[in-house]
Protein: TonB C-terminal domain-containing protein
Organism: Pelomonas lactea
Amino acid sequence: MKPLLATVLLGVTLACQAAEPTVAEPAADAPPAAIKLPQGRCPTRPAPEMVPTRMTGKFQYIAHFLLKADGSIENIRVQGRGPQGQGQNIRAAIASYRCLPADADQEIVSTFDFKVD
């Protein structure tokens, strides 16, 4: 009876350990989590021009880009709905940012809000 009880207890212990949540470690080659652009990191940040449109209302675009440690910008992606061509203007504005070097690459997320009356 004792060996059976010991086997059951061992099985219960292993099952409880397996059920405990674990914190997943990010993969070594995983991109960093996106953050807002740190204050002062890019002293030159021209605003995107608004495209001429007959549309009215509020429009929001979200841009993600990689700000490299050397201050260069890569992989600009813009999502949003609004006047045709506005996403392209946002990409052009971000591409013209002039940023300072830092210790590491940073994945940046920026929100652009427009209101057309």
The first strand starts at residue 57 and ends at 67.
